[in-house]
Amino acid sequence: MSRLDTRPQIGKLASDLGLKRSAQPVSEIVGHVRRRVRAIAKKYDCRSLAALLNAASAEAGTVFREVHCDRDLDTIVEEFVPQGETIFANLRNELRNQDYAITLKRRHAAAWEPPFVSIIDCRGYKIYGAYFSKWHELAHLFTLTPQMRLVFRRTHSAAVHDPEEALMDVIAGELGFLPDLLKTDGREEISFEFIERIRSEFCPQASCQASLIGIVKALPAPCVLLEAGLRLKKSEESAVLQAGSQHYPRPVPALRAIHVTLNQAARDAGMQMHPCWRVPKKSAIYRAFKHGEYAEATENLDWWATSNGSQLASCAVLVKARPSGDGVTALLIPDR
Amino acid sequence: MATVGERIKEVREARNWTQEKLAERAGLSKSFLSEVENKGKNISLDLLLGIAQALGASVQYLATGEGEEPIVRRPIVIPVELSRAAEELQLTHQETIDLLEAYNSVVARRSTRLKGTASIEDWKELHKAVRNVLKKTYG
Q1: Which residue of A has its CA nearest to B45?
Q2: Is the overall model pTM greater than 0.90, yes or no?
Q3: Is A82 in the same domain as A171?
């Protein structure tokens, strides 16, 4: 059970969607949307994620309008305001720096027009999140209940992240890389090139980083995606914070796992990996970081240990590591 | 009852598009489109999707002739903050309702902004942005 499962809004949404009572409403809601999207993929005979995105948006009753520059935004405002769509006059305020996308319900759409318009902000760095933003907006539309259709803007509790938004991100991550359409049979060896090939074939709009996470999660074969970088231990971080400028000698950051993604097959195979753990110096991950070049080696997960003696269970793995920004991205695959 | 082809023709004509223009935008031949529109030739759902997207039309409408489900009227609840903003701005009841409807048009948003319920200032800001549109609508 995740923390999201315990939030009352999520339980209420599951109930409004008519789903059975469960201790894990997140799984129920994700499963509900997954079934609906799978039915759409079948109905339209979708062969790629791009085709699925098209079909899903049509079924959800929305059209995507991408905004690549301020002029694009003006064009949308000039198109819809004369049609009596009042809220579009406020679009420049609605789509600010921290907003990636917004879906508006048209109040004066003709019977033949889709009832919603989803505006995707692709200006500047937001272009990298555009693919994900589209699925996020669709997740909202696929979970709109009759009650919500009339209430609309959700009840947001002030100054906290909205659990429904977090849930929509979970759904978007799943739908944007629906395993059914990734067409991997589990026989080809997992590598960065393999993942890039899947991305360019099935979801070319997705950013490289989102694809890595999404595709690794969707792979039928066990795989762990690990992003490593220089970090302090949590206890060192809090000691530094408490001591302020008086803390000497200051601890030295070490190469640690920062983000870890285990796919379901890896979990089923008993693989483990934890964020914050220090990367073993004899690992290819460490070499890739030190020398700034790709490194590959057969290793064992029991090399990973903490200062208090905890150790990962033994599991022979093939490690493929490449430098990425200030750190390293690595794929860990069971070595058979 | 209208056929799929007749509905395609209806929307195409509402857009003032020629068959050539729609065929080109949807990646179809004009003769095929003509047969669908005039002779009731069957069309697969994925091709209909292409036509719907080219026209900016609802695929559900083209396929079935049905639009969105009718909205059931429910009591309108005006938030306290809006009520106070309306008082300060001296809005009529209809203007207040219009402002609320505009606000409620937002159904989803992907943002890293922290969100809370709209404050009096938020309502005033929204009114400032949309008041000219509302004036045009109601004189």
Answers
A1: A44
A2: no
A3: yes
Phi, psi of A225 (to 5 degrees): -105, 130
Which of A43, A106, A112, A164 to mutate against chain B (most B CBs within 10 Å)? A112
A104 chain-B contacts, CB cut-off 8 A: 105-107
Q: Which of A150, A180, A210 marks a domain boundary?
A: A180
B60 close to A (CB below 8 A): yes
The Cα of B70 is separated from the nearest Cα of chain A by a number of Å equal to: 11
Q: What is the ipTM of this complex?
A: 0.74
CB nearest A99 (choices: B7, B59, B113) = B113
A18 assigned to some structural domain: yes
Q: Are residues A111 and A24 in the same domain?
A: yes
Decide if A320 is inside a domain.
yes
d(CA A211, CA A225): 12
The residue range of the domain holding A252 is 221-334
Per-residue pLDDT reduced to its tens digit, A207-243? 888 889 989 998 888 999 999 999 988 777 777 777 7
